[in-house]
Design a protein that fits this description.
The structure is a single chain. With 69 residues, this protein is mainly beta. The chain has a single domain, classed as Sandwich (HSP40/DNAj peptide-binding domain), CATH 2.60.260.40. The protein has no helices and 6 strands. The strands form 2 sheets. It has a 4-stranded mixed beta sheet with strand order 4-5-1-6, with no helix packed on it. Strands 2-3 form a two-stranded antiparallel ribbon. A hairpin with a 6-residue loop joins β4 and β5. It is globular. The protein starts with 6 loop residues before the first strand and ends with a strand. GO terms for molecular function: zinc ion binding. This is Zinc-finger domain-containing protein.
Length: 69
């Protein structure tokens, strides 16, 4: 298994990804906005950009150097 390119720590089970959330121009440089649901594993990965969203305090939370969403 390869490491995802970016990991985002979140407090919500439902998150969205457009591949450009940190870009001031928005999704112009990203991908279509998709809504993702974190399941019992405690994380979900975007099918477009492989960004991983980890539920804070969940089973996959190893909060070392994570950024909160």
């Amino acid at each position: 298994m390869t490491n995802p390119p970016e990991t985002v720590l979140t407090e919500s089970h439902r998150v969205f990804c457009d591949g450009a959330t940190d870009i001031s121009a928005g999704a112009v440089l990203g991908h279509p906005r998709v809504w993702l649901e974190i399941d019992e594993k405690g994380y979900v990965e975007c099918g477009y950009c492989d960004r991983r969203f980890v539920l804070k305090g969940g089973p996959a939370d190893q909060a070392t150097g994570q950024q909160a969403a």
